[in-house]
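Hi Y.,

Following your request, here is the sequence exactly as I used it, all 372 residues.
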Amino acid sequence: SRGELVVDVAAAPGGKATHASGLAGDRALVVANDLGEGRARSLLGNFERLGVTNAVVTHGPVYRLTGPLGGRADAVLLDAPCSGEGMFRRSVAARAAWSEAAVERHSLLQRRLIAASANLVAPGGRLVYSTCTFDPRENEEVVAWLLARREDFALEPAVLPGTSDAGRFGLPGAARVWPHHGVGDGHFVALLRRDAGANRSTASRAIQTGRPGGSRHGRDERHRRHAATEAELMPWRDFAAAHLAGDWLAGHRVERYGKRLLALPEGFTPLHGVHVLRAGVHLGDLESVGDRTRFEPSHALAMTAAGAWTGPTIDLYGDPQALAAFRAGGTLHANGAAGTSLVTYRGFPLGLARAKAGEARSLLPKGLRRLA
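Below is the corresponding structure, written out as tokens. Let me know if you'd prefer a different format.
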């Protein structure tokens, strides 16, 4: 619902977080975090390609989120790293990597992660804990460990297709997804709710999960906020007036971070102590050309704003050669378009091109180009 805060604490590569963003639309703010920067950047790419507008992508240990977000999240999802027994029937590597030591190691990690995740949940909020393994030491015992230490949390029945109650493993109400009963290779899911009458602050009962997070927000110049003058914003406004419907991204606010312009979703505030890779939508960059400033639109803008695009469009349906040229970062026929144009395939956005004199040059980012 509007104003809700949803946090996916181990989000990469992004299937669950992007689905949550789609369900929430622009009504909720989704914070998607992953420990590894490389995985978080992959997550960011998936958000951009899917045109997500209401998400913040971060990376780092979960406990760093508890500073700015402690006791605030309406919903928290922890799909925990695990020994991966649910992957055995289709992954030789998963079978080879399994050991008793791996199970014990993951169990300890999962307890730290679920404790930190619980510290994020607001009174009345929900926490979903899931794995893709069968061992009770990584499933029921982890949840029971948390419930024994956080009296303000209680287990709610999780009823899903193809599941059975986990009562036989000591945790009635949790759900086990069996590969011979439902879709999937084997999973565990537990839904917990925090007492609505609990104190919003978690300080008195929080389980200590790590060092206090020092400020890392904005260590990258791209994410240092600068006040943008009206003159600096004018190129963006001129571009938007010529290419986009006037009410596009209503409720978002445009701010400058370095040379980048971001459309920040409603409810976003700086996450001090957290490394933020991207908040909201990267609209484009402000480039200095001589004594003037030019706005260069981003690929994320093309994917996000396709439904509101009023500028020139080049549709490549029925022209496989032009499609291959666009995907390779080459040139193609402009089909009457001029200037910055949205390239589509049967109406689906692919990215941007710059058209002039009957030809259009692909602006697809280098990392997305394909030569074959």
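Residues 100-118 form the longest helix (19 residues).

Thanks again,
Q.
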